[in-house]
């Protein structure tokens, strides 16, 4: 299946169809996935790239809010329509709809701002965590497991992921708490394109955020009968950071009820700079 990072870059290289009505139209490929469903982070990142393509270069994305409407088919390409909702003196707003077979699979609104100065503060990165070099990679944690999803997670994802305190692939070790952290970075080096790094960060932000819900209830990905899916996803970019350097994704779940769980995340550079914040509600169902 080739190099995973090269595959990610190809996936984010959308084609401008040249079609113009009141919207800009782009198309992009889907990455192969073991269950045949498009990874949510992929369509989020592609929708963001489509919106970026219609926005002045000096305006930087600072937030997006998206709803997953239908499962995507990983065997089909995706069409993206971008509505240029508003261009003001400092801010621009874009709405991206992602379609397959004429049906929307994701609806997203993103906001862009001209770089400005202002008040500044941030919450601190969690302290006293092990470094990524002290933790096993996904490939090491999944070594020897004969299962197509495990093989894909171990070898085909474009990001190295190292869990604190440990992954929840097969079991939940230690206390059942509603928080965890994951060190992440891309395998290989990405081009010096800040928007590409922002889109790749959106891609990675969908990987593990629901696991804070799982951990609280002692649920692993291998729990029999588990059904989990992202319902919506919000993200705010605070400061620029490269995704081919290690970053820490600190995650917590303040609530779960009615078959849904809410998860929050903060993404820091290795030096402790707060790069982005994330919120996602997901469907999480386990048999009684």
What does this molecule look like?
Homotetramer. Belongs to the C/M/P thioester hydrolase family. GO terms for molecular function: fatty acyl-CoA hydrolase activity. Residues 168-283 form the Acyl-CoA thioesterase 2 C-terminal domain. It contains six helices and twelve strands. Helix content is 17%, strand content 39%. It is α+β, with helices and mostly antiparallel strands and 288 residues long. A twelve-stranded antiparallel sheet has the order 1-2-4-5-6-3-9-12-11-10-8-7. It folds into two domains: 1-115, Roll (Thiol Ester Dehydrase, Chain A); 133-288, Thiol Ester Dehydrase, Chain A (Roll).
N-C termini distance: 38 Å
Q: Can you list the strand order of the major beta sheet?
A: 1-2-4-5-6-3-9-12-11-10-8-7
Helix and strand content put the structural class at: alpha+beta
Strand content: 35-45%
Based on the structure given, which CATH architecture of the largest domain is correct?
A: Roll
Subunit structure: Homotetramer.
Catalytic activity: a fatty acyl-CoA + H2O = a fatty acid + CoA + H(+)
InterPro entries: Acyl-CoA_hotdog, Acyl_CoA_thio, HotDog_dom_sf, TesB_ACOT8-like_N, TesB_C
Family: Belongs to the C/M/P thioester hydrolase family.
